[in-house]
């Protein structure tokens, strides 16, 4: 596993932990009752985690394809 893969995986785990903690915390009164702002407030951390996981998968696939090309040569 390359350095960028490890880093993106650890960052994704961190964002997931922040998301779980954020769901257990109360929503600020300024945005209570505003549906889309509540969704953005809580699920932005989850979307950051998903983005990091997508990058992890991309980096992993790139590394595997480079290793396969090196094996063929």
UniProtKB/TrEMBL annotation:
Q: Which UniProt keywords apply?
A: Membrane, Transmembrane, Transmembrane helix
Keyword match Transmembrane helix: yes
Q: Which residues cross the membrane?
A: 7-23, 43-59
This protein's name: DUF3311 domain-containing protein
């Amino acid at each position: 596993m390359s350095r960028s893969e490890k880093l993106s995986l650890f960052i994704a785990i961190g964002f997931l932990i922040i998301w779980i903690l954020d769901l257990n915390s109360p929503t600020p009164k300024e945005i209570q009752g505003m549906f889309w702002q509540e969704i953005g407030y809580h699920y932005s951390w989850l979307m950051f985690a998903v983005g990091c996981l997508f990058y992890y998968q991309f980096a992993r696939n790139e590394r595997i394809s480079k290793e396969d090309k090196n094996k063929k040569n």
